[in-house]
Amino acid sequence: MYNIFLSGLAVSDQAQTVASQTSALRQAAQSAAAARTDVSEMRDQVERLAMLTQAMWELVAERLHLTETDLEQKAQEVDLRDGKADGKMSSHPLRCPQCGRVSNSRHKKCLYCGLLFEGSVFG
Ligand SMILES: [Zn+2]
Fold first, then answer.
1. How close is the Cα of 117 to the center of ligand 1, in Å?
2. How far, in Å, from the CA of 87 to the mean position of ligand 1?
3. E strands of 13-117, at which residues?
4. What is the distance between the alpha carbons of residues 84 and 94, in angstroms, rounded to a whole number?
5. Ligand 1 mean position, distance from CA 23 (Å)
6. What's the rounded Cα separation, in Å, for the pair 61 and 54?
7. How far apart are CA 109 and CA 70, in angstroms?
8. Total-model pTM
């Protein structure tokens, strides 16, 4: 009789564990679905931005008689502003060696005094 009582308690514990695991799985599935939706929305936004960038580039290239080489050179210059040729525009606070105020490394020159940021300033 006592053994039957104990095995009943064990079954009850197992049922609680299964219920708790089922709940955790349900939450994980909901999180995964939300993440898929976020990724899908971001992909749509990136595709729209890429299309708008292409349209802007073609408009500017036509109006100003620019070439793909001009675009590539400018892209390399912008890429190197953070000191790394990695295809990304990471940014960091940058203290101007001339006026001492802080600008963002994405900018080509100091927002306050106009000093051009280049070379070792990013090192
Ligand atoms: Zn400055």
1. 9
2. 26
3. 93-95, 102-104
4. 15
5. 57
6. 10
7. 20
8. 0.58
Residue 118 CB partners (closer than 8 Å, separation 6+): none
Q: Which two tokens stand for residue 93?
A: 């606070």
Residue 85 CA to ligand 1 center (angstroms) comes to 25
Spell out the residues 6+ positions from residue 111 whose beta carbon is closer than 8 angstroms to its own: 101, 103
CB 106 within 8 A of CB 81: yes
CA of 49 to the centre of ligand 1 (A): 32
Using one digit for the tens of pLDDT, what is the confidence trace for 57-113? 999 999 999 999 999 999 998 888 777 888 888 878 888 999 999 988 778 889 999
Nearest by Cα to 121 from 111, 110, 112? 110
